[in-house]
Amino acid sequence: MKAVLIVFNQAHTERVEYMLEQLGIRGYTWWNDVRGRGSETGEPRMGTHTWPEMNSAALVITDDEKVTPLLESVRKMNEINKEVGVRGFVWEIQQTV
Question: Which of 5, 15, 16, 35 is within CB 3.0–4.6 Å of 89 for a Cys-Cys bond?
Fold first, then answer.
C-alpha cells in the first residue's frame, strides 16, 4: 500500500473530490485551511490579508496499482491551471492496524 498526500488550492476542491470518486479511492483523510507555499513557483497560501488564499490536503491510502493513475490525474489537473496549484507526494505504508 501507498500513502499519497495531495496538497491543493481550495479552488480545486470539487475536482479533487471528483478525481478520487472516479478512481474508486475511498480511503482518505481531508484537511481544510492548510497554510503553506510551494517550493518552486507557488504563491503563499496563508489566509491573511496579504496572502488570502488557502490550501487543503488529502492523505490517500491506496493500493499500489492506483498510485500511477492518481498521480497522472494530479499532473493533468496542475497542467490545466498551474497558477492555482496541486501537488502529490507518495510514500510506502509499512503496516496498518
Answer: 5
Q: Judge whether 1 and 62 are in contact, CB under 8 Å.
A: yes
Q: Which of 29, 2, 8 is nearest to 73 (CA)?
A: 8
The predicted pLDDT at position 24 comes to 95
Within 13 A of 85's CA, how many CA atoms are on the CB side?
19
Q: What is the 3-state secondary structure (H, E, C) of the chain?
A: CEEEEEEEEHHHHHHHHHHHHHCCCCCEEEEEEECECCCCCCCCECCCCCCCCCEEEEEEEECHHHHHHHHHHHHHHHHHCCCCCEEEEEEECCCCC
Cell numbers at residue 76, please? 493533468
pLDDT score, position 38? 81
Q: What is the pTM of this model?
A: 0.91
The domains of the chain are located at 11-30+73-87
Closest listed residue to residue 16, CA positions, set 79, 71, 74: 74
